[in-house]
Amino acid sequence: MIKKFLMPAATLACLLSCNNGNVPPPPPDPTPVTVISSTPNGTPFVGTFGGNGLPGLLQGTPQEFNGVCGVTIDAAGNVYVADRNNHKIRKITTPGYDMVLAGSGTAGYAEGTGASAQFSSPAGVALDAAGNVYVADAGNHRIRKITTAGVVSTLAGSGTPGLVNGTGTLASFNSPIALTVDPAGNVYVADQGNHVIRKITPAGTVSTLAGTGAPGFTEGPAAAAQFSSPSGVVMNAAGILYVADRENHRIRRIANGIVTTLAGNGVAGFGDGPPNFTQFNAPYGVALDLAGNVLVADELNQRIRKITPGGLTSTIAGSGAAGFADGPVDAAQFNSPTALAVDSAGTIYIADPLNQRIREIWFGKLVSSPAGSTQGYADGAGANAKFSTLSDIDVDASGNMYILDAGNYRVRKITPAGTVSTLAGTGVAGSVNGAGNVAQFKGGTGIAVDGAGNVYVSDGNNAVRKITPDGQVSTLAGTGTSGYVDGPGNIAQFNLAYGIDADAAGNVYVADLLNNRVRKITPAGVVNTVAGSGLPGYRDGPADSAQFSSPSGVAVDPSGNLYVAEGTQRIRKITPSGMVSTLAGTGANGFMDGPGNIAQFWMILGKLRCDAAGNIYVADNWNSCVRKITPAGVVSTIVRANAFLTLGPAPHLDDGPTNVARFNGVNGVAVDASGAVYTTELYNYRIRKIQ
């Protein structure tokens, strides 16, 4: 997805070899039923979050992992990865782009900061509330801690394999493989080689929470219970700990000091249904979804399973065949999935080590192309229509779309049923008013529709044109000569009127790009300056002294606030009282979701719109995506970042779920009353819809 504002999620465990344990015979098994479930809103699809499928240590694009194991997510949406065979902990700030948080890349043991530290086959990662990362350093038989400054230390473990409780380095572990952290900062460890679950306090005191240390299967009091190679742990809000008991082929539950089985009959196999009839085959990782269900990476079944609190198991993704395939959840393929994490939007992240990838199950929106095909000019339905150089789009209250088809010198209209017609323009460049079939436009850059159905176009003639619902074209404001003059429409001047928007009262707002100002045109055609001194630059404050740099997009929200996209890669806000502030953007070219003061855009003449709730949608064209900004300034991406492409004339068009859809130079954006988002693109001659 939507890369999102995220909260911490369960840890991902790692791939290790195993031997089947001895288990008691199962009860009679009815025919299992597989249920594909999508608890969050949206259609579930499987995609690839990171990794190109080749073992290695390339960062950026392409991105490589080598035995990717643990994964967890912080509140800002950063993903932390235990890259086992590279002996590093990596931090992914944007899909496809990452940094090494800690680890030299050589197996060993060393404390220190960043790349000076050493790990040996790090297997699991988890986060505490302060943002510290905990690592199950399996090859070193230690639990390590990485501070937010990247300083690595040992929380507990002597480095010698064993089962010894105590404080810090006096304690011993044997191939700790997964861990999770509770709100109080206690760390719970799947101590796989010792067949026990350990607890570490924030002070580093280690105790055995459950298990005797001997492999086997026994329920009951924690001290007498037995596990066999436990490989995943996660704790819910009530303090119940769930354990992937790998060689017992069960998911266990620890509550109030008692160990029971949540699901699984102990026989390796595949079957959905009630607890005693469910079968797993080497379940490895566990996580919790937003509803409190337990998610399971069922490694040798090549599936992702879900268990309700009552123990009913279903399958949410995976065909059962080992391999690599993204797409619909029932056809997707994994290759020994070993661990999971869940973000605040319900997206499930999966460690798929033999595919050398991090996969995701994305409950997202779908991208479609309601109109357009190849470059040209043709009216008609859907793909029979043709456009050329689509500049901008807006949507009226009835769901009709209005398109500025600058390459054809026409304004087009698309009904909700997808039928395309020409509202105005002859196809010849010019500046002629009158009926739609004789009017002429000179390209243009922006389009907007008001509540009465009037359409406005920022034309290449340095004028703003108006088209009434019956197709009559007139000049609302602008002499056709570049300059800067406020006043009645017939004397007002603009210097490249670019993006425009209209409010409910019929006022039109203009991003006057080369005048570095935001202008307003009343329904009577009178032009005044809303904000901007005229000097290019960056300055917040009172509107008349504020500075903009090549403002290219403007949008108005229901409260009368204006939002401006400009060349300093910022989204600015102008209140009705005339105060200018920065809503989002650091001023640097880049891509970053999150709070406005850290978010980054890469807009070249980007445009934007507001929805009824005051959210802002941005055509972030050089990132080839659509961004969303809440009224509080939090930025997310509604078309996923791993779809980014280099701009170019070759078409890059893939419809489908937003985590696999591709765009090419998004330059216009609109949103309808239902929340569906529409885009125009520089090189794809189609209208795209995200819903």
Summarize the structure.
By secondary structure, the chain is mainly β.
Structural overview:
The chain has 691 residues and is mainly beta. 0% of the residues lie in helices and 40% in strands. The protein has no helices and 56 strands. The protein has a five-stranded antiparallel beta sheet with strand order 25-1-28-27-26, with no helix packed on it. The chain has a five-stranded antiparallel beta sheet with strand order 6-10-9-8-7, with no helix packed on it. A hairpin with a 5-residue loop joins strand 21 (283-288) and strand 22. The radius of gyration is 29 Å and the shape is elongated. It starts with 42 loop residues before the first strand and ends with a strand. Mean pLDDT is 88; it is low at 1-39 and 641-652.
List descriptors.
five-stranded antiparallel sheet; disordered N terminus; single chain; 691 residues; mainly beta
What is the tally of helical segments?
Answer: 0
Distance between the termini: 13 Å
The amount of beta strand, in percent, is: 35-45%
Q: Could you report the average pLDDT, rounded to the nearest whole number? A: 88
Largest sheet, if any? 5 strands, antiparallel
- Low-pLDDT runs: 1-39, 641-652
Estimate the global geometry from the Cα principal axes.
elongated
Structure class: mainly beta
| Percentage of residues assigned to helices | under 10%
Total number of β-strand segments? 56
Question: What value does the Rg take, in angstroms?
Answer: 29 Å
Strand order of the main beta sheet, please?
A: 25-1-28-27-26
